[in-house]
Each structure stands twice: as structure tokens, then as C-alpha cells.
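Milestone M4 deliverable, item 7.
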Amino acid sequence: MKVLVFETSKDRAKLINDLLLDYRYKIHINYHGDQVMTDVRYHQPSLIIVNANVRPDFGIGILDKIKKDPRYAKIPVIFISNFVSNELATKVKRYQNVDHLVEPFKIKNFRHIVERWINFRSLYVN
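Output delivered:
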């Protein structure tokens, strides 16, 4: 299974990478949020993890691009932000197959969400 990660922090990206390597996922990390659709098309991920602070589009722009493309709209996304905002939560909730995590979060919860989406995708999404 492939996981595409859009992350701003190299430390957080390493943590995500280390956590997911335990499950033997293939991880690709994009630190800038550019070439979003090229990365999605090339890697064909089973799961995408997006940090809300990724530039140039910010994470919500990346989420919007992915979910508006019918070829990739069914790919599950874990959207991570480091702040609580009703406006952001409302924007994220309008998309299907998206979980919103607010930092700090428990590693156990993160792993559970990743496993749930990977299992769901392998069973139900073509």
C-alpha cells in the first residue's frame, strides 16, 4: 500500500514515516505541496495525509484539488491541523472520505485511523 504525505515539518514527516513503515507501507513525502495532482497521479496512493499548513495552496487547497478530481475523489485523506477552527472543520467536513485530526493527537489514534482507511479502501474502493 502506498501513502502520500504532504507535510511541512521534516520532524513530523519522519515521525509519520517511521510509524507507517512499521506496517510496511510505501511512503512518499512532499514538503511543499506543489505538483499535488502529479504526485497523486504518479504514486496512485491508497491514502493521503495532508498537513493544513502545506504551501503554496495550504492544506485545504490540496484537499480541494484531490476531492474535485473524480479520478481521485475516493482516495481517503487524513487532514492534520495544529489549531481548532470551526471554519476549517466545516470546510473539511464537506468532503467524503476525510478524517480531520487536530494536533496534538495520540499515536494510537493516528494508527487506528490509518488502518481503518487502508482496510476500508482495500475492501470497498476500486
